[in-house]
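Quick illustration for those who missed Monday's session on complexes.
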Amino acid sequence: MTAKGLKDTDRTRDELYRKLPSVNELVLTPALEPSIAQFGRDRLVHAIRRSLKDLREEITAGAHSSQSLDERLGVIIERVNEQLRSGPRYSLRRVINASGVLLHTNLGRAPLSEAALAHLAEVASDYSNLELDLNTGTRSHRDVHVEDLLLSVLGAPEEESFRRGVVVVNNCAAATFLALNALAENREVVVSRGELVEIGGGFRIPEILQKSGAILREVGTTNRTRVADYEGAIREQSALLMRVHQSNFSIDGFTERPSLEELVSLSRTAGVPLFEDQGTGLVTDLDRFGVGDQPTLRDSIAKSVDLVAASGDKLLGGPQCGLLVGRRDLIARIRNNPLLRAFRVDKLTYAALEATLLEYLTGPTESIPLMRMLGTPADAIERRCRGIVEALGSNRLHAELMPVESVVGGGSAPGAKLGSYAVALVHTEFGAAELLGLLRKADPPIIARISDEKVIVDLRTVHPRSDAALRSALERL
Ligand SMILES: *Cc1c(COP(=O)(O)O)cnc(C)c1O
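Prediction with pyridoxal-5'-phosphate bound:
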């Protein structure tokens, strides 16, 4: 687009924004007087705000000409009244994820299992023993509800010399920050230059380290770091050796990185604990799903890493939280840190986490939605897509079956692809971007993607119970 073209669209958009009435003008419209009497002024103002916000967003998205906006403004009073009559609408809503991205951060990452939802509803509906020991009647701490369970799920061996504990916080970013602050404030943390990564959403390892008060000691190079590099950097001020999972990218070619075992062994000899930001929280091997070799949390525990941080809502498939699993003495120092009070999570999180972890023990893990989506064979998805394609009889919407690849997403398994199937859509009147926007306006909203001018509706990430809703939304296009 030329600079002039850009200015033109900006100018038309400004003109369109200026056409929008103010909230006050609408409140004073005589036609809305009965609504004030019936619903009250505050609810009317809220409904007006929402209607204007919708229009503003449509203008921003380039969905309006001067004429189409006039048409919408002509019916705005009816729309406001409609909204008031249909009752308050939630802002945070369930959506159908047809993007084929299993862990989509914008879509709330992992959906919860039925058991997690049931446990969460029960615990939240009344008081709970969140911090009360029912045996003694004395105060306890929240982590007892998941500590033994998580250690069992991770297959942690019971050695007296290496007892482990668990701390749950808001997310993995908080877990990493807290660990660094509690264990390495004003002291050095040795990290490979190949692992000074940005995870996404502004989470950059060097910045987190600095904010935590720890001092970064970089070793090696971007592509090659050896055990000897870590060894050479260890001195009096060293508080931790740190390993960061390269979760959202991969580097190929002339590369070298010590194995976890080598780092554990160095950490033992040097007497400097090893902290791993494992990130994904993956419990079981993903190889069986054809996603390739991904490091697991279980593996880190088996290799006796001193302290590991992971997410609860990535490949573990649970609620948003951060897990710290490690040596008792390190966990005790973390628990004594005043920042823990700021990062702790509520009973809802513990309930959902406990139920999710129990499912790993009682199996089959397909009851965890993420595991079910990973394990669904492509031909089962193909059948569902075919059913939808054959049911669509519109001559304005052309739908066809298309083989596609789903991705794990959420910065969890870079490059990993899962063979899947999609319904590919082309409309005679709407372009792909418009069609995508119409699907977002469906109820429930449908989130798809565009490839080659077609709208791709990947069913791997859609629960089969949503197929009917999806089909009827497509039928209305
Ligand atoms: C995702 C990720 C994080 C951040 O996890 P959140 O739970 O989103 O805070 C940190 N480190 C690694 C290695 C990750 O993959």
